[in-house]
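new request in #modeling-help
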Amino acid sequence: MSTLAAAATTTLQINFGAVGYGLAAIGPGIGIGLVFGHAIEAMARQPEATGRISLYMWIGFSLTEILALLGLVVPFIFHAS
Amino acid sequence: MTGDVAAPTVGAGGCHLFSGCGFPAPGLQNFNFKPLFTVGSFNFTKPELVAILCAIIVIAFFWVAFAKPKVIPGRLQNLGELGVVAVRDQILRPSLGRKGDKYLGLLVSLFFFIFLCNLMELIPVIQFPVMSRISFVVPMAATVYVLYLYLGFKNQGAWGYISNMWPRGVPWPVYIILIPVELLRFFVIQPFTLGIRLFANMFAGHLLLSIFMVATWYLLGLSIGLLFAAGSAVMVLFVFLLELLIDVLQAFIFTTLTAVYIASSLEAQH
């Protein structure tokens, strides 16, 4: 019994970088879904504008994606070691 | 891990596959290279070699393609024309229109240099995207930044350019937020995100590819066996295709945004 009582306690270690990325991925996930969803709807309404719409779709995608990627990259940049 | 005093750890820089320290997770240490040779205090590393190689290939290709241009183009000139016309019609004309044709040289160079540097991530022996080191991205973003500021001040005048950053006809309380935000956008956020977008995409892509490739070999070494390693290999294939798309897309986006920023400097937006 005393050995059980003297058992070592383990501390919970949280990798905040990973948690930060998980939180950072929420917004762009919704945003990219919106970008592509609206682009698909627009292309369905007016198929002859597909070229122009897909140009703006890719621009919108990359502007939104950067926020998720910043969440991935910033923990590495500010890593202590 | 307290029993394993002899096993190298990831942090000590000594953990490799099959050396008994678990999964050697790819991280920042994969982006630092030992120098190939040193001149004084200047270390020449693999990313610099790859960057110089990409620059030489792009310059040589366009030089040879357009050295003796003929009216009926040969094969190489045809390919070069295909590239230049694609950049002109897809990137330059939508933002700048016909009178922006004098910026075609800059945009073609930017697009093909960035594209080739990004492609180096996927080519077997090289396997390193040059733009995943921020020091290669900063000069390009700085060039674009200085260019669009210079063009803005030259074409619209000093006060004209700055006052054209915010729209007219807005109720005056909105200006309290709008003016600092627009100034911040033009002077800080645009160049920063232009560079960081390319950098973060290439950094994350290289990291993804490394993780799955190392995992494939690592899982083979365990008693778990072939099935999991095969799953990881399939992921490598998917990430390869994703990175191919991202390579083209990031080069396209960098060039397109350069054209858009130049266009907004040449004429007043609002």
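bot summary: The two ends of chain B are 63 Å apart (CA to CA).
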